[in-house]
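Thread: Newbie trying to understand structure tokens

Hi all, I'm a second-year student working on a class project, and my supervisor (Dr. K.) asked me to get a predicted structure for one chain before our next meeting. I've only ever worked with sequences, so writing a 3D structure as a token string is new to me. If someone could post the tokens and maybe explain what I'm looking at, I'd be very grateful. Here's the chain:
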Amino acid sequence: MVARDLGEPHRVSSPLELLFDLTFVAAVSQVAGRLAHTVEEGHAGDGLQPFLMVFFAIWWAWMNFTWFASAYETDDVLYRVMTFVQMAGVLLLAAGVSAAFGGDFTTVTFGYLVMRVGLVGMWVRAAIEHPDGRQTALRYAVGVSIVQVFWVSRLALPGGGPTWLFFVLALMDVSVPLIAERPGMTTWHPHHIAERYGLFTIILLGESVLAATNAVQDAVEHGLSGELVTIAMAGLAILFTLWWIYFSEPAGELLAENREWSFVWGYGHYVVFAALAALGAGLEVAVVSAGPHIPAGDRTVVAAVAMPLAVVLVMLAVLHAPLGRQAVRPELIVGTAVLALLATFTAPAVGVAGTLVVIAVLLALLLAAILTRGPSSASRESQPA
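---
Reply by user tm_fold:
Sure, no problem. This is what the structure looks like when written as tokens:
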């Protein structure tokens, strides 16, 4: 296990990485489904905190493996076995999502522990077999292990300890790479990382489609209506245009030219990914609202779509700011986000279906601005490094 060439041509995700991503489908589906349920019941505020906490564990475990694999993937037997261990941890974490929304993080914590054990094993192997990166690898192994001891110890406290303790431990977790990379940055591949993040984005968008499909299936049982069809089509248009906008930016080029921006770009995607998962939950609630009456009002339902959508748009503008040649001016993106949020105030008068159509049109106009600026940079991004 030696460091891979950061300029390696034709570097793409391996079949093992794609299989690894599939285990996160179950976890994301669980956490988005639970958030949707709390929104439907009119208790969105109660579900937001556990959603963000559980999603942190999902995102951080995925991200750690992704960046490690970009630098050290060997795809031999031992590497595959250690990856399998982490996949098992993801499934265990997914099984504990429902309990976590009720305040019991025991299963989620142990699932997280299993994932971290697999990752630490990989870092120890890298320290042994790659002398040039040994100091960095050992810092990772020790740092992850120490923080994990605190995570498990937290379970011994009454009720899992105060909420603020979770955020302190999360801050410690995200600080490990900042400390570990000081002796020298690992040789991650910029175009490979961009592709991995793009694939996880597609997984999150796919979860939105699945959630909306399941909701439509349930709603159809009570009779197909024009409102339901409008909401479903508007939701699909929102997802499609959002996908198009995300991949219009050459993320691989950004990372290759601004490697010092990698921590901000990588960490900032927690907000993007969490917002995309929340958007899926919001679209599910929107579809359900077309059926029998639910406790959540129209404004709450639309806000569950508009708010995460606005967050995604603003974060994309922030994360691509250093590139200096975005596909569209940041003020247009921010302006679209603001208009989407303002559209929520029209929901009581226009209805959920009408407001979602307005939001879909706003996104379409933003996409049109991107297309009129020039050829989509996504086509350049798809070229081999």
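A couple of things are worth pointing out once you decode it. The chain is about 75% helix and 0% strand. Residues 190-220 form the longest helix (31 residues). Feel free to ask follow-ups in this thread.
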